[in-house]
Specification:
With 187 residues, the protein is mostly helical. It folds into 2 domains: 106 residues, Alpha Horseshoe (Serine Threonine Protein Phosphatase 5, Tetratricopeptide repeat); 72 residues, no CATH class. 83% of the residues lie in helices and 0% in strands. The protein is built from 9 helices and no strands. The relative contact order is 0.06.
Amino acid sequence: MLAVLSLCNQLGSVTAGFLGERLEIGELLAAQGRPRQAAEAYRRTIRLDPTHALVFYKLGLCLEAMGDRHSAVHAYEQASQRAGDSSVLRERAEWQIETLVFPMLLEAGFADGARIFLWLIGSLSGARPELVGWVAVFLVLGLAAGIWVDRRFPGEISWTLTLLAAGLILGCWNAWKWIKRESNLEQ
């Protein structure tokens, strides 16, 4: 199999048939349980023609099998960007990204960090924890909406940052409204 791979390298032809053969070599290596060699075959295919979403997707599968989740996420992002807007491949790539990213966030302790951050802000400001929680809810909703808009309608504006800031502003405004209402009730 490696002899075939080296023979393909020596030929250097960039025809559609050749790219198909490269893809098949990667698929054969992956089917044999050799994700490292398959990933290298996919990388060589990408170097010849970096426009095929399917090759990036299959590279992501190999990298994930090798345990390299960060590189797999990058490959899936490339597949998603190159796939059509309503493509099944795009949906699969985005699903793979979500299944890889959320466990990484949990492992990194972001969920615990968020809880500690909310508790710290609540205790330092004297605010009730549910008010701080609502600020966080608007913040997370803005973040999620921004990520969704950026993926669906990529452009020059970062909707993730814009809607994150809007969520923070809405959350703070909501908390201010509650605090003002409670202070009026106490008087």
